[in-house]
Every structure is written in structure tokens, then in C-alpha cells.
């Protein structure tokens, strides 16, 4: 293996997550902070979101609040270069093999005092694949503690069912935690200093609360899978041609799909509103986290 120990790999298989502290260099972290500042400046004066920026519901043109930077690898060279570096890919290769394909990227911006919650969900509910060598790498841009809304997971839940993420007859991208037998007291926060990375399995149940602290909580997510995991029809993974799909290879080569005996649900009927998880989850009727708009 490149960077992980066997004990770390075993822990990921058992628990469904890892935190690797101080994985980024100070220079890499500084460059990312500068990029975030550049995008935040773009939000000033906007009355609605753009192809690059998703705005908080409480955003105002004179008081900009960015909720998410969408697909940053397509318009930030800094974030694209980091995505393809061994800083990110080496531990992923250790976990799921040498052939990796990108699913998507996003930078969730939980700014101090108002960063939106993300309700409990499983990524695999959004994009089921032929096998579950699917994961997300989170790059912590800020020191992460309980007070600023860290990502939280239920250890071992990646080895259980894919829960129902529907309400009122359509997909809402979130679970009813009580109905599905989970107690918030059992959730584990993924915390660490800025420059650390978290890795969580695509089937693990996870979410995060509102950031009510005086510190930002920004995480850059690179979601990827083994190249032999192919999307199942109805998945939210979209591609136009085989060439388009092959262009998402991060390392190694594309391979024939591998089928595994795993639980699957299809995210249909499609949500009536929204393209981001924040909008989709507004259809949820039983929320676990409070909301804040100020």
C-alpha cells in the first residue's frame, strides 16, 4: 500500500470511515483558502445562484453567503490539481484499488453562524452502482470541532441496508432517522485540524448540523469510485457518451463492470425541485437537524 497501514484499511472496512490528520501541506492549504476567497468575492452583487455558486437562502447581494461551490474541479486549477495528486489518490488506491473514476466534486461552505445543515443520508442512495467500492474524500479547509458542524457518521452503517430516502411519493435525498432505528447519540464526528482529510464509504449514513459557531467549516469533497463500478439505470450519475465517461478516469484504466451482491435503491421518482442536496432535502417531512436563517 502507498500510505495506509493494514490497520487503517481494516478500520475502514469495519467502520466505513477514516480521518488522516494534516495530510495537506501548508502551501496547498493556503492556495485553497485563496481560491475560496476568490469565489466568495464573486457572490457579491448576485441575486441568484450561478453554474459555479449555490447560495444560502439568506444570501443578499450586499451580504453574500455561499452555500456550495459546484464542480470546482472544472473551473479551479488548484482544486483540479489537488484532486489528481497523491495527496488525495494514494490513500484511495490503498482502499479500493489502482483504477479510479471521478463521480463529482463540491465544496460545502458552512460559514460561521449560518452554514446550512445536511440531513442524514447515504451517498449510494443518490447514485447506486454495480458494486460499492464508492467513497468520498473530504478536505478540511478549517479546524473541525463539534461547535462548527462537523461531518458525522454512524460507524458500520455502510454494511447495512440502503434506507428509504423518499417522502410524499418522490426522492428527497434524506432518511427518517428515528424510523430507520438510529440514535443521534451514536453518531461519530469526523474532526481534525485544517489540512486533514476524511474518507467515508458511499453507503455510510452521515449528515451535519448547522454551524452556529464563530468559525467557518468548509469541506472540499472529491467523490470517486473504482473504475469497475458502473452506474445503475436511474442513478443520478449522468454521462453523455463513453468518451465522456472515460474522461473522468483519475488513474489506471476503465474496466468491465463488476457486479456485487449489495443492496440498491433507485432515486426515483425524481425530486420535483432542486439540483443540490440542500434543495432536494426540502421535501423531507421529518428533519433531524434544526435550520437557521438570519
TrEMBL record:
Under the heading InterPro entries, the entry gives:
Phytyl_CoA_dOase-like (IPR008775)
The parts of the chain that form a coiled coil are none
Q: Key word Iron-sulfur present in the record?
A: no
- Kindly list the GO molecular function terms attached to this UniProt entry: 2-oxoglutarate-dependent dioxygenase activity; iron ion binding
Task: Note the Pfam families from the entry.
Answer: PhyH
Keywords from UniProt, A to Z, are: Dioxygenase, Oxidoreductase
The name on file for this protein is Ectoine hydroxylase-related dioxygenase (Phytanoyl-CoA dioxygenase family)
Q: What organism is listed for this UniProt entry?
A: Jannaschia seohaensis
Amino acid at each position: 500500500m502507498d500510505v495506509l497501514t493494514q490497520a487503517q484499511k481494516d478500520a475502514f472496512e469495519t467502520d466505513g470511515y477514516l480521518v488522516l490528520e494534516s495530510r495537506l501541506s501548508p502551501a496547498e492549504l493556503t492556495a485553497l483558502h485563496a481560491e475560496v476567497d476568490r469565489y466568495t468575492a464573486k457572490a457579491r452583487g448576485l441575486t441568484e445562484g450561478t453554474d459555479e455558486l449555490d447560495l444560502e437562502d439568506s444570501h443578499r447581494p450586499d451580504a453574500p453567503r455561499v452555500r456550495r461551490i459546484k464542480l470546482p474541479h472544472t473551473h479551479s486549477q488548484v482544486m483540479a490539481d489537488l484532486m489528481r495528486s497523491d495527496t488525495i489518490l494514494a490513500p484511495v488506491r490503498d482502499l479500493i484499488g489502482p483504477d479510479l473514476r471521478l463521480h463529482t466534486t463540491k465544496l460545502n461552505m458552512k460559514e460561521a453562524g449560518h452554514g446550512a445543515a445536511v440531513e442524514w443520508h447515504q451517498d449510494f442512495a443518490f447514485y447506486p452502482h454495480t458494486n460499492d467500492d464508492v467513497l468520498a474524500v473530504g478536505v478540511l479547509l478549517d479546524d473541525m470541532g463539534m461547535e462548527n458542524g462537523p461531518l458525522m457518521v454512524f460507524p458500520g452503517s455502510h454494511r447495512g441496508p440502503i434506507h428509504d430516502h423518499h417522502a410524499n411519493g418522490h426522492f428527497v435525498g434524506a432518511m427518517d432517522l428515528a424510523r430507520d432505528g438510529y440514535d443521534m447519540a451514536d453518531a461519530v464526528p469526523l474532526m481534525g485540524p485544517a489540512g486533514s482529510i476524511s474518507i467515508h464509504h458511499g453507503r455510510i449514513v452521515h449528515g451535519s448540523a448547522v454551524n452556529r459557531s464563530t468559525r467557518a467549516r468548509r469541506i472540499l469533497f472529491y467523490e470517486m469510485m473504482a473504475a469497475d463500478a458502473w452506474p445503475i439505470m436511474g442513478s443520478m450519475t449522468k454521462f453523455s457518451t463513453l468518451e465522456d465517461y472515460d474522461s473522468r478516469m483519475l488513474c489506471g484504466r476503465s474496466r468491465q463492470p463488476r457486479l456485487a451482491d449489495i443492496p440498491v435503491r433507485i432515486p426515483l421518482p425524481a425530486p420535483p425541485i432542486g439540483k443540490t442536496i440542500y434543495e432536494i432535502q426540502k421535501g423531507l417531512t421529518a428533519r433531524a437537524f434544526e435550520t437557521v436563517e438570519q
